[in-house]
Predict the structure.
Amino acid sequence: MSARNRSCPRCKAPLQGYVDECPSCGFEKPVALPWHVYALMALMFVAAMWFLIDLDAIARAILAVREGLGSM
């Protein structure tokens, strides 16, 4: 079923594209987003975290803890 030929599950009115509510009856979320939209959102989140988190500082902290535990 393509996005152009979808209909509202409540009133069966034709829907154009991915809409948040049916223009006829106001039913919320009549068309679910495809799975690849969620995969792209997750990929963008991981990429943002990769650039925002200081991985060197985390590695130094882990090594410092290991050295501290080794001297005990």
